[in-house]
């Protein structure tokens, strides 16, 4: 039990540290906001009781009650203004914590190594944190409910404690009948028991509410995914729009979606109703206890132990003690959901925080140009039991045009990702001109490669911005790059030519280009960079045969004087390569030029012949 309490306390300190990191001074702001708000409540209760006493003592015609009321109102106004100001600061701080946490999540995604970026556990954790913030609040709930409740309760105890002791010690002038009961220890015991009833009942109620809320939050994470799938994917993506309209004539998909959504919403509503019922039990108990306390403490007034106004004050104080206790225990009972989200956030931000360290070596000059070597290189993706690449030994010489072919999943793209340092070998090393590629600086190494991946991406900025990927744009070179890739014919006819934005997300006057046109822009970007090593991973997969032929016609210009690595499932493209590497199950099984490999009648022969026969028929 003691260890559990210490662990919880340590966790609270850690959450407070992270909260302060997300928004400096948020703990201090929340502290003073809670303290001043609680003082305001007590001042309001105290002033009402005192005004009642003044009215009873001085009568309606006396000016003293009026003057005191005006004074009380001025003090209350100032307290409420200050409390409201601090409350706004606290809410703003909580909001900014969430915004800064979102920013940190995005920066972590961008800054982490690619191998971690594609790690399924890392991506699942990211999704859980985002959904957790949406439904549990995370740090905002911790600050605005749990920490706020604890501070308010402590302030309440300090403010109410001494006054309530005075009330309990006040004695009736007549020690018979009601006076005897009021003066007896039994009166104090009854008051304490009444105050403790909501506290005792709030523990199991808060625990029961917490369990339901935990299930509710877990359900809502899954519910949110279902809604996102229907709204953002199934009913929004054009590809599904075509499929539904052509294959769902009887409306089965729509009917299933409607049925699923209805069941999800119905279950969600049941959770909310159950939570409301549980929470209302404590409210009903508290109201019943307040009525009983008014009856008891009124006995003190009836026996002249305290004034009538003091009844309002003491019952109000006791009610505030009970309310803050219920709030604290309610928030504490629901803590698991927000604690879980904060734990996931901390885990995500520290996920494999050992970012791979690269050297700062300059690229070594060599009279023979660039020489790339794979030395017994293997790679295994996280969560996989198989090697994606299995002990690869390979040399690529300056100016070589290397085609890499093989079935799906043979390791072609993995090999390129290792070469470009998106991934780090599980074992073995890769060197350029005899130097381990991990010893080169990030900037210098990036300058070596122009890459077009099959799953390329372009930003919503202008075509010129995308092709140049630089602040300084050489428009003549941009145009030349687009001419070589075959997209200039389209771009030159647009009103803003290369200054046209891609898509309409950032610019309402942007253009929605086809997949093939976007691929041509990506190829133009690779040529514009003018790097010594060109990597083309399925660069013509979205192009029609004529556009593909145009790319092949300009292939010499695209890779002239460069080392080129070309991955494609279209075997006809290998005819442009001086050397062909055939991969299967992560291993190099064939190596040579087109004619040599065709004579071997191995895997390359089968792949090439299977495609060729459809053109020969």
Percent of residues in helical segments?
55-70%
Which strand order spans the largest sheet, edge to edge or round the barrel?
Answer: 6-7-8-3-9-10
Kindly report the average pLDDT value.
Answer: 83
Q: How would you characterize the largest beta sheet?
A: 6 strands, mixed
- What is the SS-derived class? alpha/beta
The tally of beta strands, per DSSP, is 10
User: How many distinct helices?
Assistant: 22
3D shape: elongated
How far do the termini sit from each other? Answer: 80 Å
Radius of gyration: 36 Å
Poorly predicted residue ranges = none
Residue share in β-strands: 5-15%
Write the layout of secondary structure elements.
Blueprint: H1 2-22, H2 26-58, H3 64-111, H4 114-117, H5 120-136, H6 139-169, H7 178-183, H8 185-234, H9 238-247, H10 252-302, H11 308-333, H12 335-349, E1 372-379, E2 389-396, E3 401-405, H13 412-419, E4 427-432, E5 435-436, H14 442-446, E6 449-452, H15 463-468, H16 475-485, H17 488-491, H18 515-529, E7 533-537, H19 545-553, H20 555-559, E8 563-567, E9 579-584, E10 587-592, H21 594-600, H22 603-616
Parallel strand pairs: 3-8, 3-9, 6-7, 7-8
Antiparallel strand pairs: 1-2, 1-4, 4-5, 9-10
